[in-house]
Design goal:
Elements lengths: L5 E10 L2 E4 L2 E5 L5 H11 L12 H14 L11 E7 L4 H12 L8 H4 L6 H10 L5 E5 L5 H13 L5 E10 L2 E11 L5 E2 L2 H9 L1
Parallel strand pairs: 4-5, 4-6
Antiparallel strand pairs: 1-2, 1-7, 1-8, 2-3, 6-7
Helix pairs in contact: 1-2, 2-5
Amino acid sequence: MEQHKYSISKWCTVSEEVVKRFDQVVFEGEKGDFVAFAKAYYKTNEIDYPKFFKMDALSKLAFIGSECLLMDEEFDKPTSDIALLFSNASSSLDTDLKHCESIIDKDSFYPSPAVFVYTLANICLAEVSIKHKLQSENAFFVTPSFDGDLMYTQVKYILETHRAKQVLCAWVEYLEGKYKFFGYMVGSYRQGELEHTRENIKEIYRR
């Protein structure tokens, strides 16, 4: 049986207030301030999604990284062509802790519903999907560290069963100010692009 070949068409990282695409710096923000950095990226790239400012940090991180990867895609109408596979190690713990603080805050009679809505890690999948009109397969995995083998297997399944034409994969980790986004797009094989293999996924993650 002939093996299907796929390629990694692009990749992006976001960490330490720097956004890189294809290993090239495309944006730098104020060091040590993720909130200011995220707001600056949003404004510099003239993104139109006012709900961005109400998101928790994890969703903002996923949103920024996804924007970097999807900026040259066309989204005139709803599509199921792009699936989303996200993962991290701490789920929504950063926001969970803030939610707990709001519950025990004696100055607050009720915990904030604006915080509570983000106490599920997969809410960031919804934010990206709404922004880009994606009506596609999506999943969020929680693993101790980035699992390239897991992502490779899931991507192959989605593409070979024709559930989508492309898959946006991402490691989206944010906890108490420390964060990293690593994302890449996989689709049909094209000459000159990086072949979608376990080894290549791990190699670009380490860069």
